[in-house]
Design goal:
Elements lengths: L2 H12 L2 H4 L10 H13 L3 E2 L13 H11 L2 E4 L4 E4 L4 H6 L3 H15 L2 H10 L5 H16 L3 H13 L4 H17 L3 H10 L6 H14 L3 H18 L5 H18 L3 H10 L8 H19 L1 H10 L1 H6 L2 H18 L2 H14 L7 H17 L2 H12 L4 H17 L7 H4 L7 H18 L4 H6 L4 H8 L7 H10 L3 H14 L5 H17 L3 H12 L2 H7 L1 H17 L3 H18 L2 H14 L12 H10 L5 H8 L3 H15 L4 H13 L1
Antiparallel strand pairs: 1-3, 2-3
Helix pairs in contact: 3-6, 6-7, 7-8, 7-9, 8-9, 9-10, 10-11, 10-12, 11-12, 12-13, 12-14, 13-14, 14-15, 14-16, 15-16, 16-17, 16-19, 17-19, 19-20, 19-21, 20-21, 21-22, 21-23, 22-23, 23-25, 25-27, 28-29, 28-30, 29-30, 30-31, 30-32, 30-33, 32-33, 33-34, 34-35, 36-38, 37-38
């Protein structure tokens, strides 16, 4: 900077400029320093010092300009980090005081470093009154962001565009589109705010649709389906004008809501034909249509057919945004889970997370957590499944929060814990068909784990009617095991036979463990009707896939071994029955199914076959403690014999009791004496 320039610069630092700062005026500041401050204000974030060289002349001292701006109180600068930014408290005043030509310069520079959207938002925040030119630019930037899957940013841009729109109708349309993007992002708080200020006479069809979709995401399924049905009727009769993607949203949301509410799939398909979505150009709605068709196909013909329907649109999904790919991968993961193919389920779940860049706050991540949690539950990794359930239970969307809580309840039921924890008991269950199926499934699992509920009562309960229908259909094949077992145990042979026939239809191309479940259920039914030879052949067929069965679904495998043992004991093969019970107990102990462990231990005692304590997983020290306690010694006397403390003896006894299925020193002594007597 020359001497003359320095002289001209000094009044800016020391003179009346400082007095005018409170009024937001930079008129007394030389051009280059003024431009630096204005561009930083529009950009709205710190940048490296080097980026500011484009704003000054070659012979000007950039470092001197920055230092003077810092001294004047306009700019912050961290020399150690080399980053420069405008003072937050004066940013709005700087933007508001810019002339149109200054704003254009600042916008172009800021757009270069922020892809345009950030600078547009800051400029819109400073606008007083309407600015249709800026509103159009915001709208265009919003749709670019939406096409890239950045739906939260798109919602914000369109909301700002609506705020400064010159025309009321344009403002209403932009606010509606903003709310659609907010729904796609599951930003329900923004949706509620938008609906509260949206006028009744503006875009009434879409207002009903938005309110309906919000109701569905808030677990008000019937109300949401009703509102969306009303919106569809208005589209059919009034043919209200509007953008095609919004009309597509109405049609597809309505169909999905009716499916969740339990409408027959055929009727939903007919409604889609009568009021088909317009020709779609937005890849998001094309992808949503393909997902919807896959879901409806799954409900009618099973998840394997649904996967084929979904695969037919895979080319579109691959060329679409990360959001579309992520949602498509979520549906694929869910359908693989229902077919019982856990490896492909987890691969699709990983693809969904990669597509959304591991954004743990997105609804895609919450859906993945729920699906992976169920896969981990099947694999016997119950602690990891709980982690997934807690992650989903923190969702801002009530629907996904309830699904996370339902997963936690399922894990607890598997362990034999039927009490609902505080987080679950304070929530109403999901009211959709999937929620109804989950409630009955969890109740059947709890009944199996605790033997505390009569399966007859569960099957006859009115509140589980919808759950019975869903579990009996083709959508959830391997989950039918619980229903077949309950029907067989309760003596409802007709229902059991119907369900087994359905499982056979589902079993074509199913993973080996699912086919093993089918043979297991057929064997149970055959044994119940007295066909012992047939039951033996069917049980032997399950053994052919035992390795895959145990590796994929260990809890189901342990229960199969226990049932097989009961059958062998009934036909007089006690030694083989003991071997099966020991295998079942080992697997149950590994995954933490304490109730099943105790049941196997109790059954082993009743068979009165010589057994070693280490079969029950006792360590060397636990065996020593158990043997000494069984002789009648106190904890202190045992501690003296083993040179440990009485507290250590009590600790080892606390491990011994559940492993052996006893509850007191008296029962332990009797168990030990029976073992030696055998």
């Amino acid at each position: 900077m020359s001497t003359d320039d320095t002289t001209a610069f000094l009044p800016w630092i020391q003179g009346p400029w400082c007095e005018s700062r409170a009024r937001g005026s930079l008129r007394l500041v030389p051009f280059s320093p003024r431009r630096v401050v204005q561009c930083l204000a529009v950009l709205g974030r710190d940048v490296p010092l080097q980026r500011l060289w484009a704003l000054v002349e070659q012979d000007e001292d950039l470092l001197g300009i920055v230092e003077a701006s810092v001294e004047a109180g306009w700019v912050t600068w961290s020399p150690g980090e080399g980053r420069v930014g405008v003072v937050r408290a004066v940013r709005a005043d700087v933007i508001a005081a810019m002339t149109p030509s200054e704003a254009e310069i600042a916008y172009r520079w800021a757009a270069r470093w922020s892809q345009g959207a950030t600078s547009l938002l800051h400029r819109a925040a400073a606008v007083r009154g309407a600015d249709e030119y800026l509103a159009r630019r915001l709208e265009a930037a919003a749709h670019r962001s939406g096409a890239q899957g950045q739906v939260g940013k798109a919602a914000e841009l369109l909301s700002r565009a609506a705020d400064i729109s010159a025309d009321t109708a344009l403002a209403a349309g932009r606010e509606t589109a903003s709310t659609v993007f907010a729904l796609r992002a599951h930003d329900l708080a923004r949706v509620r705010r938008s609906l509260s200020v949206m006028r009744q006479d503006e875009y009434s069809t879409f207002r009903h649709a938005l309110a309906g979709r919000l109701a569905v995401l808030e677990n008000r399924i019937e109300e949401g389906a009703s509102l969306l049905g009303e919106a569809c009727r208005e589209l059919r009769h009034a043919r209200e004008s509007g953008r095609q993607d919004l009309q597509a949203a109405v049609v597809q949301w309505a169909a999905h809501a009716r499916w969740l509410a339990g409408d027959p799939v055929g009727r939903i398909g007919q409604q889609l034909k009568e009021l088909d979505a317009p020709a779609l150009r937005d890849p998001y709605w094309v992808g949503e249509r393909q997902r919807l068709e896959a879901v409806l196909t799954s409900s009618a013909e099973g998840p394997a057919k649904g996967l084929r329907t979904l695969a037919a649109g895979s080319a579109v999904a691959l060329s679409a945004s990360a959001e579309v790919r992520g949602r498509s991968a979520v549906t694929e993961a869910w359908l693989h889970l229902e077919t019982g193919d856990l490896d492909r389920c987890e691969a699709a779940a990983s693809s969904a997370l990669i597509a959304v860049s591991l954004d743990e706050t997105s609804h895609v991540a919450e859906a993945v957590a729920t699906i992976r949690g169920h896969a981990l539950w099947l694999r016997g990794a119950w602690k990891q499944a709980e982690v997934c359930g807690r992650s989903a239970a923190r969702s801002s969307s009530p629907l996904w929060r309830l699904r996370g809580l339902a997963l936690l309840e399922l894990v607890a039921a598997s362990r034999g814990v039927v009490q609902r924890n505080a987080a679950i008991s304070g929530q109403d269950p999901e009211t959709s068909v999937l929620g109804a199926a989950a409630q009955l499934f969890t109740a059947l699992v709890a009944a199996e784990a605790t033997r505390g509920t009569d399966e007859v009562d569960l099957l006859a309960a009115a509140k589980y009617r919808l759950g019975r229908e869903v579990l009996s259909g083709p959508l959830l094949p391997w989950r039918k095991v619980e229903l077949v077992r309950a029907a067989t145990t309760s003596g409802d042979t007709r229902l059991a036979a119907t369900l087994i026939t359905s499982m056979r239809a589902d079993g074509h191309g199913a993973p080996p463990w699912v086919q093993g479940c089918l043979s297991w259920m057929e064997a149970l039914s055959a044994a119940r009707t007295g066909s012992l030879d047939s039951a033996a052949r069917l049980y032997a067929r399950v053994d052919e896939v035992a390795a895959a069965f145990e590796a994929t679904a260990p809890w189901y495998y342990a229960r199969y071994q226990a049932d097989h043992a009961e059958f062998l004991a009934a036909v007089g093969d006690r030694r083989a029955a003991v071997d099966r019970l020991r295998a079942a107990r080992a697997v149950a102990d590994r995954i933490g199914a304490k109730t099943l462990v105790n049941r196997c231990a109790t059954r082993l005692r009743t068979l009165r076959v010589p057994m070693n304590a280490d079969v029950f997983g006792l360590t060397v020290r636990e065996t020593e403690v158990a043997e000494l306690v069984s002789t009648g010694l106190t904890n202190g006397e045992v501690a003296g014999r083993l040179f440990v403390t009485p507290a250590a003896v009590a600790f080892h006894l606390g491990n011994v009791y559940p492993k052996l299925g006893v509850r007191s020193r008296y029962e332990l002594r009797r168990w030990w004496n029976e073992r030696h007597a055998g």
